């Protein structure tokens, strides 16, 4: 729930993270998930550079003219990564990590993902969400966030508290200073 909420919040600002994968997910002392490493963040609708499988996929025939590319940055690419994260969290390993493809492993995984040949899933609520993420069924990330709020236990979990106004304003000024220095300038 916290990951999909973070992605939906970025979407509301017109951005996507583009690098959702386990090393960029942190847990605080209360086991709340924190999304980190925003250096690859991109505007929605721009060409996606993609990431390593299984956190991104080269699009297949279903994408029409975008086939063979990572497509555009947006809900489709982000939810795919979130689906793979959910799979990893519920299985304890990455999609296809439990199979031995020998020296052609990355090529086989890329091909399988491109042709939407995903690992087997079950009938549970989480697996249905994983499947919908992998197939790009959520039009917006906020739709995914709404769905994950319905997961058992999600409603009872404490919500993130807002920062005090003074602290927030200081952080906002620091962020603006970094932007003014050119931190977010595209090359």
Automatic annotation (TrEMBL):
Give residue ranges for domain Protein kinase. 1-187
Cited SUPFAM superfamilies = Protein kinase-like (PK-like)
- Alphabetized Gene3D superfamilies for the sequence: Transferase(Phosphotransferase) domain 1
What highest taxon heads this organism's lineage? Eukaryota
**InterPro entries (alphabetical):** Kinase-like_dom_sf (IPR011009), Prot_kinase_dom (IPR000719)
Q: Which GO terms describe its molecular function?
A: ATP binding; protein kinase activity
Task: Name one matching Pfam family.
Answer: Pkinase
Instruction: Please identify the protein, giving its name as recorded.
Output: Protein kinase domain-containing protein
Recorded source organism is Endocarpon pusillum
Which taxonomic lineage does the organism of this UniProt entry have? Eukaryota, Fungi, Dikarya, Ascomycota, Pezizomycotina
């Amino acid at each position: 729930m916290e990951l999909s909420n973070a992605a939906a919040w970025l979407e509301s600002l017109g951005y996507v993270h583009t690098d959702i994968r386990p090393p960029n997910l942190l847990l605080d002392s209360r086991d709340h998930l924190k999304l980190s490493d925003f250096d690859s963040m991109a505007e929605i609708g721009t060409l996606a550079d993609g990431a390593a499988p299984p956190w991104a996929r080269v699009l297949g025939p279903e994408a029409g003219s975008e086939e063979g590319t990572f497509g555009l940055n947006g809900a489709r690419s982000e939810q795919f990564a979130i689906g793979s994260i959910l799979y990893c969290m519920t299985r304890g390993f990455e999609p296809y990590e439990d199979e031995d493809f020998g020296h052609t492993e990355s090529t086989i995984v890329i091909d399988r993902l491109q042709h939407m040949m995903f690992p087997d899933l079950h009938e549970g609520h989480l697996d249905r969400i994983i499947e919908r993420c992998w197939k790009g069924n959520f039009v917006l990330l906020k739709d995914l966030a709404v769905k994950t709020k319905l997961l058992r236990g999600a409603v009872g979990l404490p919500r993130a508290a807002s920062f005090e106004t003074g602290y927030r304003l200081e952080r906002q000024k620091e962020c603006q200073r970094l932007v003014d220095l050119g931190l977010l300038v595209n090359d």
